[in-house]
Structure prediction request, 175 residues.
Amino acid sequence: MTTAYVADTGVFVRCGGPDNDKFQRLRQAVRQAGVSLRIPQRVYEELGGDPAADEYPSGNIPYPDGFEEGWIVVADELDYTNSLVSTIMDDARRFIANETDRNVDITEKADTALVGLAAQLLETDQADHVILLTTDKPAGRAAETLLPQHGFSDQFEYRYVSIEYLETITADEFR
Prediction:
């Protein structure tokens, strides 16, 4: 079974940066497990990456060690022409807006991209199972509610990344 790990911006923000113990613990756990954290293009942009660059631009690389070492990977662009991806992202936007009592127009696009990426990975058979690591409870609940509605029952897991989670994370979390 192929498991893909999708991470949001908040995971890296909550780690406190590359010099922080929590970041190093996450790095070590992911590397020891031999997996990578996939981030949607929107998350890469939120982290400070340059969407216009062909590769990671010198001086603008967010968390350069993670990208250079390969344990943080920018996922392929979302295929908005895929009706499942576009539908689930629209559904996620509405779900998150309802959960947060905000207008649907101000729902962060990176949050919906997390759910869209999970759906795309499953639908295109790039993964048999997706685990979403997020600090955003509404986005996590949207994914765990919507993905099963679109045929991905038992193929998705949402893990809330708290400070405590990062302080105790081991490679076993990724096996």
Summary: The beta strands are 3-7, 37-39, 72-74, 129-134, 156-160. The first strand starts at residue 3 and ends at 7. The first helix runs from residue 9 to 15. The radius of gyration is 15 Å.
